[in-house]
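Dear support,

I submitted the protein below through the web form. The confirmation email said the job was done, but the results page showed an empty box. After a refresh the structure appeared. I'm attaching both so you can tell me whether what I see now is the final result or a partial one.
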Amino acid sequence: MTKLRSMTGFAESYLEEDGRVVRAGVRSVNHRFLDLHAHLPEGLEALEPIVRRLVRQKVRRGHVDVFVRVETTGPPEVRVNMGAAEMYLEAARELKARFGLKEEPDLGSILRLPGVVEAGGTGDGSEAERIGVALERALGEALDRLDRMRATEAARLGEEMARATARIVEAVKGMEPLGESARAAYAARLRERVAELTGDGNLDPARVAQEVAQVAARSDTTEETSRLASHLEQFARVLETTGEAGKKLDFLCQEMLREVNTTLAKTPALGPDGIEITRLMLAVKAEIEKLREQVQNIE
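What the results page shows now:
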């Protein structure tokens, strides 16, 4: 199985202990760099470094969203913020004295005021620390599942790309005899044309042959097909590597397209064999463009 990793995947996990459930979900899609977004419950923003450390251990490239939720499995823990309650009561007493009011402050109304009752205890440093330990375990498991999913997807992509490169290799091999035949036919046509234009025989035959050879060389596609074959060999080797292979594969696709386009620019002058070379190169170009689309999702 290929050692590559896809950049697309989703996984989640949860841990239940001490009357709470910590849920962690991870979603990733392709991106040029590692673009991480952590979505944490209010009051637990201090746990973001844990999230970033764990993600960087598993993911090198991609847009990654991490979603964390904390739920209680029993009666919620609540505490009264005595300082906030005291400030509200003092304000109520001042209003009563200033305007001569007789009503006493309503306890139920005071408890409903913002910041008086705090649920879940997330403001407690020790509580946040315990949640952080649970989060590390839950997120670690989610990232392991994500990694397995990304490896499975990359294996499928790797198999498809290997089949595509095999088809390209066969097409390039089919070009070799066509190229030799086209070069010979092109040189012969050039010699005939030169003979027609220099019928008086005043030109040096050796010099004519040299000029014909130079012009024919400019339509020779041997160099392009040789480089294309070399790029294909490198592409196959990179498919078996680890690390950030996506950027290398994308670069090789660009180079292969460059060689194909240069070859296509030369084929109009090659006669009937040039037509067949053009057909093969257009098919190769279509395969490389498909390869490049698949490579965009490789880490």
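Response: this is the final, complete result; the empty box was a page-load delay. The mean pLDDT is 84.
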